[in-house]
Specification:
Layout: H1 8-11, H2 13-22, E1 29-32, H3 34-41, E2 49-52, H4 56-65, E3 69-74, E4 79-84, E5 87-93, E6 95-100, E7 105-109, H5 113-118, E8 127-129, E9 135-137, H6 141-147, H7 156-162, H8 166-177, H9 184-193, H10 202-213, H11 219-227, H12 230-234, H13 246-256, H14 262-268, H15 274-284, H16 288-299, H17 309-318, H18 321-339, H19 343-361, H20 371-376, H21 383-398, H22 405-417
Parallel strand pairs: 2-5
Antiparallel strand pairs: 1-2, 1-8, 3-4, 4-5, 6-7, 8-9
Helix pairs in contact: 7-9, 8-9, 8-10, 8-11, 10-14, 13-18, 15-16, 16-18, 18-19, 21-22
Length: 418
């Protein structure tokens, strides 16, 4: 018997209290999905989802009677969130699909665990843990989990037609948990339905892609997405650019202890073209911070690895240091990928590393002269103030920021009088 009974997360008092609540008086509740899957893989468990035969209104009623906070987060679809000591437990009534259109499903409540399991997407996501910790597998998920096989439940084409986002979920779960070659039926079904991804909201598409890119090594998933033209459907910018930089980037992240960054991985597979990236950001509805990340990178200049420290400081001052750091990280990954046995690339790696360290420690100096100083020196308000200050700031940065305020004020008078 496979069990999670001995796992610390399963023994927590809050979860046991919720399970006792749901399993009383003819009801039944089981932990389902990610918590069970991750536990069996020896991975961390965070969110705990629970399926139950009880109707959502009865879940709320029982929770209130037991003094447990109940939040109707999705009660129309059967979901209630129970909160104990600040920890949420999402409880959802068993469901069966009544109607689907590839984006949304109309569901009816059920008491049939087999039906509930079969409406889920992937076999490894349909594992249940009963109140005693026994793992219940109704769709062959345990065998797939052991083989690291990512497989749709039942007919892959039908599962995808129920929600086209499952195309990206297939590759996302392959990136995080899969091994070897993706399931052939799933791969064919994803390829056949790839054009339907355009019918999904940009937010759902980007959310899945970002989770995929956050995997420890998304390289194989991206490769198969490219093979079946799913990647080009979601990120057409990659089509003439490619994903060849990913292996070296992953290797560099692991070697240098960089935290996996989905945005850096994205930058590695798309061209640094500000106009195209602005369109990408609009199309996928990236956040302001994500958009700024890509545009700072695209607008940063190409950097020679033999640049002097003074010249590099000037670049950091004139451009966003964050964008320059992204450029350097990607260049470092490429150099490290070529460095083995190549002394020239090894030296280049060392130089880029030094620049990256300098950029990380960079503190932008503050230009010590402003518009008020120009007006005090006798200038009239207007566009010329900005022009003069721009020339003065350029001279200050060209001089490696060494001119004092008094020297700058003297030079300001000269510029005004010239």
């Amino acid at each position: 018997m496979t069990t999670v009974a001995g796992e610390a997360w399963f023994q927590e008092a809050g979860l046991q209290r919720v399970l006792a609540l749901l399993n009383a008086d003819g009801g039944e509740g089981r932990v389902v999905g990610g918590a069970v899957r991750n536990s069996l893989l020896g991975l961390a468990v965070s969110d705990i989802d629970i399926a139950t035969t009880l109707l959502p209104e009865l879940v709320v009623e029982r929770a209130k009677a037991a003094g447990i906070k109940a939040v109707p987060t999705g009660i129309a679809h059967g979901t209630v969130t129970l909160v104990i000591d600040g920890k949420p437990f999402e409880v959802t009534t068993l469901r069966r699909d009544v109607e689907t259109d590839g984006r949304h499903a109309q569901v009816a409540f059920s008491e049939d665990w087999q039906v509930d399991a079969e409406r889920r997407d992937l076999t490894i996501n349909a594992l249940y843990a009963a109140s005693d910790g026994e793992v219940i597998d109704l769709v062959g998920g345990l065998a797939d989990l052991e083989r690291r096989n990512i497989r749709f439940i039942g007919d892959a084409t039908r599962r995808i037609a129920e929600d086209y986002l499952r195309i990206l979920r297939f590759f996302r779960f392959f990136a995080h948990y899969g091994s070897g070659r993706p399931d052939a039926d799933g791969l064919r079904a994803c390829a056949a339905a790839r054009s339907k991804l355009a019918s999904l909201s940009a937010e759902r598409v980007w959310s899945e892609m970002k989770k995929l890119l956050a995997a420890k090594d998304p390289g194989r998933a991206l490769l198969w997405m490219r093979q079946v033209a799913v990647l080009a459907e979601v990120l057409p910018e990659t089509e003439k650019w490619g994903i060849d930089a990913i292996p070296a980037l992953i290797s560099t992240e692991e070697a240098l202890g960089w935290t996996p960054d989905p945005m850096l991985r994205l930058a590695a597979i798309i061209p640094p073209d500000a106009a195209r990236l602005a369109k990408l950001a609009t199309r996928l509805r990236l956040s302001k911070a994500e958009t700024a990340y890509l545009l700072d990178w695209a607008n940063a200049p190409a950097i020679r690895d033999d640049i002097s420290e003074a010249a590099f400081d000037r670049l950091l001052y004139r451009h966003e240091a964050s964008g320059i750091s992204i450029r350097l990280k990607l260049a470092l990954a490429v150099a490290r990928g070529k460095a083995e046995g190549d002394f020239e690339e090894m030296a280049r790696t060392a130089r880029i590393t030094k620049l990256l360290d300098r950029a990380a420690k960079w503190k932008k100096p503050s230009f010590p002269v402003n518009g008020a100083d120009a007006l005090a020196a006798g200038m009239s308000a207007g566009p010329r103030v900005g022009e003069i200050l721009g020339k003065l700031e350029q001279q200050w940065s060209d001089g490696n920021f060494s001119m004092t305020r008094s020297a700058l004020l003297a030079r300001l008078k000269e510029l005004i009088e010239s």
